[in-house]
Amino acid sequence: MFLYIHGFNSSSQAGKAQELKRWLEARHRGHEWIAPDLPDRPAQAIALLSELIERAETPPKLIGSSLGGFYATHLVAQYKLKAALINPAVHPGLLLRPVVGTVQKNWHEESQTYTFTQDHLDELIALDQLSPQHPQNMLLMLENGDKTLDWRDATGYYRDAHQLVFQGGNHGFTRFRDVIDLIDRF
Question: What PANTHER family would the database entry show (predicted)?
Fold first, then answer.
């Protein structure tokens, strides 16, 4: 079973989430796909993801993209699951500080807006870890062409995790289709 965790202001309609769904369906494993639309509040998102993990019949493998990679890192510490982290956000409480007070909208449903507040930031800071726990359970995948997040921050933070750094690409991780099989075997 795979639990896909989307990034900041994204949804289950994200390209990687849908690519994973198609990959699983082509192998008659569509029932293994879970990709919830997460609330914008980090504490609520973690509560929803924790509930899905605890209700699962078998421990899911996490795939977290961007902010979803940060959430997956927290969940690995809590549940000792395996996770593939795709261009993950490192210390998003620092990264997102400049957007406090701004109106945000969902990439896939532009009518869904909210104001990013200090409470959002405080919840991210509360979830952060000085260093990731159980790094042996993490497969870090980065494209160094990511202009949204600096890939070098992730290689340093996840230094004890399994790492693959690809040349070029972007924040959306252009090689996702090519690495699903590897993620499945991890």
Answer: ESTERASE YQIA, ESTERASE YQIA-RELATED
